[in-house]
Amino acid sequence: MSSQSSRPPSFLSQSPPAATPILKPALKTSRPSTPFNGTSNLPETESISPIFETTGGTDYFPRISTQTSGSGTVGVKTRYKSKVGFDTLQTQTDATLFSFTLQMKSEGYKRLRSTRCYLVAASADESGSHALDWVMESLAQEGDELIVFRGFDGDDMGDNQEDKKQEAQDLMHSVLEKNDENEPGRKISVIVEFVGGKITSSIERLIALYRPDFLVVGTRTRSVLQQWGAALGAPGMGSVSRYCVSRSPVPVIVV
Length: 255
Fold this sequence. Notes:
There is one protein chain. The protein is α/β, with parallel strands linked by helices. It is built from 6 helices and 11 strands. It has helices at residues 23-28, 126-139, 161-182, 199-210, 225-230, 237-247; strands at 10-12, 51-53, 67-69, 80-82, 86-87, 99-106, 117-121, 145-152, 189-196, 214-217, 252-254. The strands form 2 sheets. Strands 1, 4, 5, 6, 7, 8, 9, 10 and 11 form a 9-stranded mixed sheet that branches. It is globular and about 40 Å long. The model is unreliable at 1-5, 17-75, 86-95 and 232-236 (pLDDT under 50). Pfam families: Usp. InterPro entries: Rossmann-like_a/b/a_fold, UspA. This is UspA domain-containing protein. Residues 1-49 are annotated as: Disordered.
């Protein structure tokens, strides 16, 4: 691991703890109490078939009834199973509703009492990769759920729909490979969300949809954090951090 990736993370929360917690025990013994008005998690219905099927969706991410063949697209080992997936890249006329979702879970995966859900802002730059690496190496544990988000400009979609799908599949493959490399046999659930439109709005919607325990972002990201801060007319990491503390309904981990 590089010197950058070994840098300790910063924890941003609305009420700072009395003492600095040890990383994993602290993350495993508390759950945010902030109420949500969002929707519940995706259904746990399994599909052993490699076909990704759509469902009704939510007010935040409407899903159109289509089917997308997922046979062999992710290219992961057989100990992972596909679950429900969504594809609105071809059916939506509103660029802000373009989305492509892949969902995989380890063979025999079960939710545990200690299960935690992490939303990771995995932008395509170095900081997004750093955040994802840190989660897989230092945070994820048996039974956890990872929501890996990458945003893109829906107005620039054009004829690049298949490229976006392939990028999502490559990202899923990368996450599962990192899981096998860091802790072989660790059973996790992974959802990759590619969403078009404003990055900050997409993050807010995903928080309402999945109700994660933590939001994980990279300190050097320009495609996510800078836009987040610019939305408030406050450039710079300090301003972004203050925004996270004051506005995020879930604890934020900055790595």
